[in-house]
Structure to design on (313 residues):
């Protein structure tokens, strides 16, 4: 008898917690239509990026999906065309770990597209081992930061011409454990996996703030966000103690990719954000990042150093 009561109590507490947690999740309520606008999304083959791309396609945007694996990309493009009833989708290949591949993509978009209104940088990796890229950069930092940084900068002219336009960068709450080591920007002095991820996510916020300031006049709205803890293949390379949460206990913490896509979608389309730039969001609301992300001196220095590293200066 007591055993049944105890089990019942545990179930009730679990359900109450779940309801409480799901009520805290931000939802994008905007009904904005994107007819006539062009959006570029990276990382659209799965997870959060897929849901962002699908949502923008449903809003009738012309969609450019930039993906690593072209076969996966084709499958996803057909799925989105069907689900969204939108044929206006272009598939592009890019390896964000390669600066020449990023340049090629930006060149093609610049040449072929008459405008770019929205750029959503979603693609990202974690848990990978150390590998030096062809540009002599550490791969996690290159994929998460330098590649998207270069892509964004090369598309800026298009974005400025389409103003008011938007850039959305997906970062992570894990930036709070990061720090920028200016002696190790190529990751050649030392390497520690979680740090490379944390530092790259911190770099995204710093660059968003710095560029947000620079782009204000031009009418390009730039923001970044933490999507929440999302159950995606992103977890595959994570240590067991993180993956463990994908068991039933994890049901409390992990959200679905569609839920995880809400804040990036909000930043890409909502009228509520049209006058806010250079900021960090979570749950579709303004949020305050960790204090190392608010250091304007580090931000400026990082952007300048990164421009040199990716060959923009
Ligand atoms: N999941 C979370 O809990 C969480 C929390 C905080 C922040 N985030 C951030 O959210 C973003 C998306 O994560 P997710 O959870 O949706 O992960 P995911 O399901 O693993 O998706 C990652 C995407 O990035 C693409 N990608 C990986 N390497 C690439 C490369 N070299 N060039 C081009 N594209 C590449 C992948 O393409 P392929 O499919 O072809 O490999 C895939 O589409 C990441 O930036 C991540 O840091 C996630
Ligand atoms: C994020 O946003 C700003 C846009 O101003 C951009 O310059 C930066 O490179 C973007 N991407 C990353 C990965 O930081
Ligand atoms: C996470 O996603 C996988 C694959 O889609 C699914 O099998 C699993 O039940 C999910 N776990 C949680 C906690 O949502």
């Amino acid at each position: 008898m007591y055993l049944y009561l105890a089990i019942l109590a545990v179930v009730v507490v679990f359900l109450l917690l779940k309801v409480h947690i799901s009520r805290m999740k931000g939802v994008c309520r905007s009904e904005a239509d994107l007819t006539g606008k062009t959006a570029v999304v990276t990382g659209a083959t799965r997870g959060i990026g897929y849901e962002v791309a699908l949502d923008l396609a449903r809003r009738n945007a012309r969609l450019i999906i930039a993906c690593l694996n072209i076969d996966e990309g084709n499958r996803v493009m057909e799925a989105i065309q069907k689900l969204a009833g939108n044929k206006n989708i272009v598939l592009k290949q890019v390896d964000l770990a390669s600066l020449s591949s990023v340049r090629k993509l930006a060149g093609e978009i610049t040449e072929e597209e008459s405008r770019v209104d929205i750029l959503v940088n979603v693609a990202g990796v974690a848990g990978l081992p150390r590998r030096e890229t062809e540009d002599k950069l550490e791969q996690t930092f290159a994929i998460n930061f330098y590649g998207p940084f270069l892509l964004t900068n090369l598309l800026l002219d298009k974005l400025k011409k389409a103003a008011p336009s938007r850039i959305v960068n997906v970062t992570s709450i894990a930036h709070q454990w990061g720090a920028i080591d200016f002696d190790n920007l190529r990751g050649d002095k030392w390497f520690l996996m979680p740090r490379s991820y944390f530092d790259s996510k911190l770099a995204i916020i710093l660059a968003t703030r710095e560029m947000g300031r620079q782009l204000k006049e031009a009418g390009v709205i730039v923001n970044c966000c933490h999507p929440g803890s999302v159950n995606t293949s992103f977890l595959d390379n994570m240590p067991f103690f993180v993956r463990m949460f994908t068991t039933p206990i994890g049901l409390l913490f992990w959200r679905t990719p569609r839920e995880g896509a809400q804040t990036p979608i909000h930043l890409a389309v909502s009228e509520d954000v049209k006058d806010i730039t250079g900021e960090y969001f979570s749950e579709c609301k303004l949020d305050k990042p960790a204090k190392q992300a608010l250091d304007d001196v580090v931000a400026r220095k990082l952007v300048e150093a990164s421009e040199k590293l990716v060959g923009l200066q």
In short: Residues 37-309 form a domain with the Rossmann fold fold (CATH 3.40.50.720).
